[in-house]
Amino acid sequence: MSRSFRRTGALGAATVALVTFGASAPASAGTAPRAVDLEFTLYAQEVAGEETEAGEETGEGVPAPAVGDAFAFAEDLYRTKGGEKVGRDAVTCTVARVGGPGGTGDLVCVGTFVLTGGPVGQIAGQVVLPFSTETEQPAPFDIAVTGGTGDFKDVRGQIRSTEDGEYARLDFRLTR
User: Fold this and answer.
1) What is the pTM of this model?
2) HEC string of 121-158?
3) pLDDT confidence bin for 33, thresholds 50/70/90
4) Do residues 64 and 47 touch, judged by C-beta distance below 8 A?
5) Dihedral pair phi/psi, residue 4, rounded to 5°
6) Within 13 Å and on the Cβ side, how many CA atoms surround 172?
7) What is the rounded average pLDDT of the residues 139-158?
């Protein structure tokens, strides 16, 4: 599986010099829309793994993904690019659909963000992510937040992931 294909599945993060961890408004009661409680940005950088991707050493082409193929990766999370490390994430993606024009398909990715600097806890997320084996850089995408622990107990919301050079920018918008 090529690095660009793996990177497409990244639930990772990227570019703002300031991270804001703080409540901006209390959650609403009743059926009214929930107010955003926490907004912050982190940058994720993939941690090198020990696995060797098919075709890397031989120079042969990498085989096309097939339904059921899966991969996992991990990233370190930073307040700023190369700045203070504030956590890590772990993600698993499975190919759910293939065969569209231009080598397109869908990945189902599930991941957990473990935050250790500032608020402490875990945030779980998932996404169905379209991919193309011909596209080097994925378009920005939104990750659904499905829950959390610690300081993030009962959170919901979304995380916007945007490629930013060697990092991914993660913009968190969470409600309680």
Assistant:
1) 0.75
2) EEEEEEEEEEEECCCCCCCCEEEEEEEECHHHCCCEEE
3) low
4) no
5) -65, -35
6) 33
7) 96
Q: pLDDT tens-digit profile of 121-131?
A: 999 999 999 98
Distance (Å, rounded) from C-alpha 2 to C-alpha 76?
21
- The Cα–Cα gap between 48 and 23 comes to 34
Proportion of the chain in helix, strand, coil states, percent, rounded to 5:
5, 50, 45
Maximum average pLDDT range among 96-110, 123-137, 141-155: 141-155
CA distance 58 to 55: 5
Judged on CB neighbours under 10 Å (0-12, 13-18, 19+), 57 is: exposed
